[in-house]
UniProtKB/TrEMBL annotation:
NCBIfam families: GC_trans_RRR (TIGR03382), Glu-decarb-GAD (TIGR01788)
Keyword terms of this UniProt record: Decarboxylase, Lyase, Pyridoxal phosphate
Family, as annotated: Belongs to the group II decarboxylase family.
Enzyme Commission code(s) on record: 4.1.1.15
Domain of life of the native organism: Bacteria
Pfam families per UniProt: Pyridoxal_deC (PF00282)
Lyase as UniProt keyword: yes
Protein name: Glutamate decarboxylase
Family matches, as InterPro entries: Glutamate_decarboxylase, PyrdxlP-dep_de-COase, PyrdxlP-dep_Trfase, PyrdxlP-dep_Trfase_major, TM_Gly-Cys-Arg_CS
Length: 456
């Protein structure tokens, strides 16, 4: 096929779909030779993007899919601000600092304002930084003791992929503890056979990605206390609170999972998940400034002084950070509690509706963890699987993923539904109705030859 040199519309009279640009295939391999009408390009891209899944019905993502008008405007206002230019944009730097201080307080840092923390592009970058600090501190301890530093390991349960990346990119052995039958996360009694003198830390997950429940941070810490009493090994905990960091303080305020647990050295969370900020922001906070080794920190020029930075990126948009601060101010503790409690109530309602179908076993019923549910088939269904159910739901636009649990429960296939800000009770009720209808259709259709129009 010849490469089109696509030209722009010549006249304001042209309908977007009669412009040369729209009458040809869009250039996909070579830069066009000439300019094109911006509105024609805009419209064509906008309609191509309609073919993406509908974010509002994407019940697979933890990430923000609904933002108020003020967030849209602040994002637009900040479009040209680079958060790394602390000298040029001192107020953006100040706003980042305020967010860190507020989160350090929310997560009960004993040092409050004085501790260290920063924004990141998400929990993945935050995990890299948290892991690096653990590795550096372990190496320092080993060097002082005159011991080898070549075989660091990190102990964890069913972690998100970012920890596998951290381990591979930064040369750390990942000791992923297999799930026990009926368990959905790391259990305290499992720790003893995995931690040793080369363990840089244990990752505890507040909001297991696969199932939405919390790992028992305080109980894991207590077991590490017992291990220290017996062996002398002093193993710190990093809490991956990608989702739970912005849920637990509001919905489960009594749960001690944060810096109230003395062994917790650092916490990461995704601002763009239950922090409700638009995509592109995460956070990490250390318990005390001392827990972030000095030689990981770079000093950048800032208003004639210097500003400590720790990041994998350099240039990065400032808008998400500003939007995060807006949300913290806009909602406050009460607002976050109301938003997430409404989601948690809807998740529990969905859990009940799913249980009523009589076919599923809930792995997580929406109580005590994130606003969501996860479930598996109670018994092998007659000729259909959860993957088929996912496909059936998709015909109504719902995106509900099916996937196997991590080892050693990889034979269990589950589905998970997340209830987020912007997903209302009526929507959840409609999903429950469609779930029932889809199951009926699968039961009728299973084994029988497909009728024409079966999928409609
Ligand atoms: C989503 C998630 C991550 C990765 O977070 P991003 O913000 O998408 O980089 C890490 N850990 C857990 C537990 C998560 O749920």
């Amino acid at each position: 096929m010849a490469l089109h040199a696509v030209t722009g519309t010549e006249s304001w009279k042209d309908d977007v779909y009669t412009t040369p640009l729209s009458e040809n295939a869009l250039p996909k391999f070579r830069l066009p030779d000439t300019e094109n009408d911006p509105w024609a390009v805009y419209e064509l891209l906008r309609s191509e993007l309609l073919l993406d899944g509908n974010a509002a019905q994407n019940l697979a993502t933890f990430c923000t899919t609904w933002n108020d008008e003020q967030v849209h405007r602040l994002m637009d206002t900040s479009l040209n601000k680079n958060m790394i230019d602390k000298d040029e944009y001192p107020q953006t730097a100040e706003i980042e600092r305020r967010c860190v201080q507020i989160l350090a307080d929310l997560w009960n840092s004993p040092e409050g304002h004085a501790t260290m923390g920063c924004s990141t592009t998400g929990s993945s970058e935050a995990a890299m930084l948290g892991g690096l600090a653990l590795k550096w501190r372990w190496r320092e301890r080993r060097r002082k003791a005159g011991k080898p530093t070549d075989r660091p390991n990190l102990v964890c349960g069913p972690v998100q992929i970012c920890w596998e990346k951290f381990a591979r990119y930064f040369d750390v052995e990942l000791r992923q503890v297999p799930l026990e039958p009926n368990a959905t996360g790391l259990q305290p009694h499992q720790l003893r056979s995995y931690v040793d003198e080369n363990t840089i830390g244990v990752v505890a997950i507040l909001g297991v990605t696969f199932t939405c429940d919390y790992e028992p941070v305080a109980e894991l810490a207590a077991e590490l206390d017992a291990i220290q009493a017996d062996t002398g090994l002093d193993v710190p905990i990093h809490v991956d609170a990608a989702s739970g960091g912005f849920v637990a303080p509001f919905v489960q305020p009594e749960l001690a999972w944060d810096f109230r647990v003395e062994r917790v050295a650092s916490i990461n969370s995704s601002g763009h998940k239950y922090g409700l900020a638009p995509l592109g922001v995460g956070w990490i906070v250390w318990r005390t400034a001392r827990m972030l080794p000095d030689d990981l920190v770079f000093r950048v020029s800032y208003l004639g002084g210097d500003m400590p930075t720790f990041a994998l990126n350099f240039s990065r948009p400032g808008g998400e950070i500003i939007a995060q601060y807006y949300l913290l101010l806009r909602l406050g503790r009460d607002g976050y509690r109301k938003v997430h409690q409404a989601c948690a109530d809807s998740a529990r309602y969905l859990g009940e509706r799913i249980a009523d179908l009589g076919l599923f076993t809930l792995l997580y019923d929406g109580t005590g963890g994130l606003p969501g549910v996860s479930y598996t088939l109670a018994a092998p269904a007659d000729g259909w699987t959860l993957y088929d159910l996912t496909e059936q739901l998709r015909t109504r636009g719902w995106q509900v993923p099916a996937y196997p649990l991590p080892p050693a429960r990889q034979d269990t296939v589950i589905q998970r539904v997340l209830v987020r800000h912007g997903v209302g009770r009526d929507e959840v009720a409609l999903l429950a109705d469609d779930l029932g209808r889809s199951v009926e259709r699968l039961r009728r259709g299973a084994g029988a030859p497909q009728r024409p129009g079966f999928h409609h």
